[in-house]
Design goal:
Oligomer: single chain
CATH architecture: Orthogonal Bundle
CATH class: Mainly Alpha
Structural class: mainly alpha
Radius of gyration: 14 Å
CATH topology: Helix Hairpins
Number of domains: 1
Order of helices and strands: HHH
Strand content: under 5%
Length: 69
Amino acid sequence: MTKSTELRTKDVAGLQTEVKALQRAHFGLRMQKATQQLNNTATIRTARRDIARAKTILVEKQAAEKTAK
C-alpha cells in the first residue's frame, strides 16, 4: 500500500511511473483471480484504491504546475 505522503514527495514523472506500476500490479491480480490463483481478493480493491490515490495526487500536481506558470 502506498501512502499519500510518500506519493506527494514525488514529482510528476515519478507519479506517472508509479501509476503505471500500480496498474501493472492490478492487472496481475485480475489475471490471478481469473485463473483461480488469488487467495485474498481484497488485494484487488486495495490496488484499485492505490491507483486512484496516485492519479488524484498526479492531477493535483499537474494543476499546481499549470497555475504556477
